[in-house]
Write a structure and sequence with these properties.
Elements: E1 5-11, H1 20-27, E2 32-40, H2 50-56, E3 60-63, H3 74-88, E4 93-97, H4 104-112, E5 116-121, H5 128-132, E6 136-139, H6 147-165, H7 169-176, H8 178-190, E7 197-198, H9 199-209, H10 223-229, E8 233-240, E9 243-250, H11 256-271, H12 273-295
Parallel strand pairs: 1-2, 1-4, 2-3, 4-5, 5-6
Antiparallel strand pairs: 7-9, 8-9
């Protein structure tokens, strides 16, 4: 991934200039940005904040006038340039920075061409079809380090409330958490017969089904750290030289019930019925003797 050649195309009308540094740092994790372009009508006052950012980060501005008032023609210019870059064959992937659903078809077309597509946009504005059309989608909310602790604090508040009420309620709340269903389906898909699944395989499976999945959305920098904080998962780690091999499974779920409790529960009930049957036989002869005495 480090040697991948990427083309970064920014829809300036639907992106934040204040996050440009964090945005490019995120792109660097997936490859090298060979082309960096930002599209918009730079004659308007709405894009003033972009001027200093463009020069600072060597982003090439592409001027696109609005042919009709009230309509944005930036999307078409970005799409045309993306197709031109695709046909050159010099790139391994594209990074589309926008929250506009109009780029959904562009993302699918680039993937059909065998290229990796990374989307970056706002969580509240980006439609689900555009997210699903990308190989990986990063929300801009997690690019700011200041907003990460706020998300963790908001998640901790309801947990403290449940612990004050009773000890069993926080466990029920965690079982209802959407992460449990996500991890359960992923583990069932890649787990061995023992129920254990490799953490790397689980992460790959989740990423394929939900491109927007990122441990940082839940306040963790890595998936291995996030897994250890989930109470419904069991984690085991083994070292093979310098590499750390991690495996996970569902705790007290599908794997625990059939292996331990199933053979024990049927063995207990058969011991109780025989002593219960013995007193019933003793009561029967007593009833027979009483009517015989009355007849004599």
């Amino acid at each position: 991934m480090e040697n991948r050649k990427l083309a970064v195309l920014i829809d300036a009308d639907n992106a934040q200039a204040s996050l440009t540094a964090e945005l490019l740092a995120e792109v660097a994790k997936y490859g090298t940005a060979i082309v960096k372009r930002a599209y918009g009508d730079w004659t308007t006052t709405q894009l003033k904040s972009w001027k200093e950012v463009l020069h600072k980060h060597a982003i090439h501005p592409i001027q696109q006038f609005a042919y009709t008032s009230g309509k944005n023609s930036t999307d078409s210019a970005l799409i045309i340039d993306a197709m031109d870059l695709l046909y050159t064959g010099n790139f391994d992937g594209f990074c589309l920075v926008s929250s506009d659903s109009d780029f959904t078809r562009l993302a699918t077309r680039l993937r059909e061409g065998g290229l990796t597509v990374i989307g970056i946009g706002e969580k509240s504005k980006t439609p689900r079809p555009f997210i699903a059309a990308c190989d990986k989608f990063v929300f801009t909310e997690i690019l700011r380090p200041e907003k990460a602790p706020e998300a963790v604090a908001s998640n901790d508040k309801p947990r403290t409330r449940t612990t004050r009420q009773s000890k069993s309620k926080p466990v029920l709340a965690k079982e209802v958490h959407p992460l449990q269903a996500m991890f359960t389906s992923a583990i069932d898909a890649v787990a061995r017969e023992s129920g254990w699944a490799e953490l790397s395989a689980v992460g790959s499976y989740i990423a394929k089904n939900d491109p927007s999945f990122d441990p940082r959305n839940y306040g963790h920098s890595r998936l291995s750290q996030m897994v250890k904080k989930l109470d419904f998962l069991s984690v085991q780690e083994q070292r093979n030289g310098s590499k750390l091999h991690s495996e996970i499974r569902i705790k007290d779920g599908e794997a625990a019930e059939p292996t331990v409790t199933a053979p024990v529960t049927p063995a207990a009930p058969p011991e109780n019925p025989p002593p219960a049957a013995a007193p019933r036989k003793k009561r029967a002869p007593r009833k027979k003797t009483e009517p015989a005495g009355k007849a004599g």
